[in-house]
Amino acid sequence: MGERCTQASFLDGKPNKVRKTSKSTLCDRCIQEGYKPEDVVPVKPNSGSESDELETCTACRRLATELVDEVGDRLCGRCRAVFRAARALFKERVTDEREIVPTLAFAAHAEARWALVNEKLPEYFREVWPEVFAQTYKGFELTGVVDGVPMLRQELAVVEVERYAGTELPRRIFIRAFSRSAKPKFIATLYEQTLLEEHIPYDRCKRISFPSTEVADAHLIIAVDPDREVTPEKANVLSENPWMRRPSFPPPSLVRDYYKMMLGSVYGGRFKGFSYALPGRQSGPKSGRNSSRLASRLT
């Protein structure tokens, strides 16, 4: 660790000794304070410049270079981005936790890179980037930009259509639920809306098929298949001739019932299902309580 050790300032600039039996490169005191080897920004060799000197961030207490003064604190890039996002949320009086949490999380993830895009490519950021963002970060909606800070909102669920290669013919539908607050009726409405927008038939489905149901990346994924599968050649023909009878998907009512069964409940005495693996509240999202906490910290 050298001079980067947290105890160096108390030992005349010398690092604390590491036990011979220790498997870590950090001393016991650094480990007790929560530091990990990957938390320490490596020193650039032979740089000698003032900007490369390591300092401790006032907020996260991690060692970093190029700290910035922010209202009396010395903050690293990530913490500065989070504080800016928090002030933007407070300025807009945001009270919904589905907006507060993802906005702060994305600020920590992206740090200040999005600010650079906003300054240099304002038209792209305003008109094109929301669509690019939706494709890259599925399950989140970009609701606006406040003082250069992207304001996000977590979707309860999304429905995606997978098509046969090189055609417009739907091959499979994926339902992605990001919160246990997504109720069966809401899922059915979202699914039906997708069917209507994509002109996908569902009134003559002769076979019900849900080939896979799993939890991945903290959200529930349900795959929905049509009543029959066609060859790539047949898919091309059906795609080019919309008037021909296409494979039919299950109706929204059956999808609603299947989702309800798979979701289960977090309440005792009921089928647990996948609800325990999802974030959110069983009774639905709430606001107000978290907003008051946020306000008290910013004032």
Provide an overview of this structure.
The chain is α+β, with helices and mostly antiparallel strands and 299 residues long. The chain contains 9 helices and 10 strands. It folds into 3 domains: 2-74, no CATH class; 77-154, no CATH class; 157-277, no CATH class. It is 34% helix and 18% strand. The strands form 4 sheets. It has a 4-stranded antiparallel beta sheet with strand order 7-8-10-9, with helices on one face. It has a two-stranded antiparallel sheet with strand order 1-2. The chain starts with 27 loop residues before the first helix and ends with a helix. 23% of the residues are buried.
Q: What is the beta-strand fraction?
A: 15-25%
For the record, the count of structural domains works out to 3
**Quick check: average pLDDT?**
78
Oligomeric description of these chains: single chain
Largest sheet: 4 strands, antiparallel
What form results from the Cα inertia axes? Answer: elongated
By DSSP (H or I, 4+ residues per run), the number of helices equals 9
Reading side by side through the largest sheet, how are the strands ordered? 7-8-10-9
Task: Report the helical percentage.
Answer: 25-40%
